Amino acid sequence: MSYELYEPNPYHAPAPPPPPPRRSASGWIALGIVAALAVPVLIVLGCGFGGILLAAKSGASPSPSASTTRETVQPAGGPYRFQLPAGYVPIDAPADARGTLEHATAAALAPGDTANILLAGSATLPVDTGTLAEDALRTEVDATVAALGHDARTGQATSVHGYSAYRYDFVYGSAHADSYFVFKGTTMVQVLCRWADQKDAVRRGCDDLLATLTIT
Q1: Cβ atoms within 10 Å of 91's Cβ, excluding its own
Q2: Torsion, CA 192, CA 118, CA 60, CA 187, rounded to 10
Q3: Where are the alpha helices (DSSP H) in 95-198?
Q4: 47-215 is a CATH 3.40.1000.10 domain
Q5: Which residues contact 28 (CB under 8 A, 6 or more apart)?
Q6: What is the pLDDT of residues 96-112, one digit of tens each?
Q7: Helices (DSSP H) in 46-198: which residue ranges?
Q8: Hey, which of 83, 148, 189, 208 has its CA 20 to 30 A from 66?
């Protein structure tokens, strides 16, 4: 059919159809993140979907450790892996800390020590974050951090082992945490580092973990 030959009756022209509703991709991101993050237990433990690493404060990616003999941690069916930081032992992710995290893993300085802990987990988002503008994704992550009761103004865009990431400072009374949200496509990996009295050791462990984090 040629539109060039079509001459509608001007007195009976049909009304144009209404435009389709607009769908907010960043809104989907927020829903996905909130579903994965809105877990009170994570707040208690000082772990959040975001930050770690002292080196990331400067915006730089961590440098991988030279060791090639460390144990590789990869949860069954999980979309990520990392090398166990030196001086850490793998432990079961505390049941009250997993929340809605998928494929949760944890490491501690000593068995049973959950006061100073590294916790990782993943979440599947309904939108490919690689298709979003950086400011749109940042806005959604900031909103999620604020909803968890933390200061989104501490957020910094950074890179973790080549992946887009955002880092935040979380404070829980006398406990603190560095929290990272790390993104690849529709996968978000959260690395949670919380310390009560072993700040240097936990941040060193975070450094090592992030330097070897791979999202598959």
Answers
A1: 18
A2: -50
A3: 95-98, 134-147
A4: yes
A5: 125, 126, 127
A6: 666 678 999 999 999 98
A7: 95-98, 134-147
A8: 189
Residues 6+ apart with CB under 8 A from 111: 89, 91
Among the listed residues 94, 93, 80, 65, the one whose alpha carbon sits nearest the alpha carbon of residue 190: 80
- Can you give the pLDDT at residue 98? 67
pTM above 0.85, yes or no: no
Contact 46, 176 (CB under 8 A): yes
CB atoms within 10 A of CB 124: 13
Per-residue model confidence as pLDDT tens digits over 106-142: 999 999 898 899 999 999 999 999 999 999 999 999 9
CA distance 80 to 82: 7
Backbone angles phi, psi at 112, to 5 degrees: 85, -10
Distance from the Cα of residue 197 to its chain's centroid:
25
Beta carbons within 10 angstroms of residue 177's beta carbon = 27
How far apart are alpha carbons 156 and 56 in whole angstroms? Answer: 9
